[in-house]
């Protein structure tokens, strides 16, 4: 999540323009990688849903002020205090555990196999025979368990 978005959400909550829960709904809607303009627009849309048109217009200025403040704070490089940041965003900022993908089986390069001159006998067009494998010794095999 971008730093200006974190400051914007903090400003909305501290100025009581939105609740923490509503801010989290906004982040769920736009995603954690959204920029501040997307977050601000969605937050304003959500806050405006339950008020009259006149009240919605009155929300615009404090939302713009919160966004300007957030951008200034982010540009200064100042981070939200860690305890406040965690109280606002909690598990949203915790990195998800990364489960490694199982290794993919090696895929033979068909072009290399076909280009191998030793693979085919040029004169007869026949395949080379595979080397013979030793036969397993089954002398001590117990068949009573089978």
What does this structure look like?
The protein is mainly α. It has six helices and no strands. The two termini are 61 Å apart.
| Rg over alpha carbons | 32 Å
Task: Classify the secondary structure makeup into a structural class.
Answer: mainly alpha
Molecular shape: elongated
Q: Beta-strand level of the residues, as a percent range?
A: under 5%
User: If you average the pLDDT, what whole number results?
Assistant: 78
Number of helices: 6
For the sheet with most strands, the description reads:
none
| Low-confidence spans | none
Q: N-to-C SSE series?
A: HHHHHH
Q: Give me the count of strands.
A: 0
Distance between the termini: 61 Å
Provide the helix percentage.
40-55%
Secondary-structure map with pairings?
Layout (H helix, E strand, L loop, with lengths): L2 H12 L5 H11 L5 H13 L4 H24 L5 H8 L20 H6 L31
Helix pairs in contact: 1-4, 2-3, 3-4
Quick overview of this protein structure:
This protein has 146 residues and is an all-alpha fold.
Notable traits:
mainly alpha, 6 helices, 0% strand, elongated
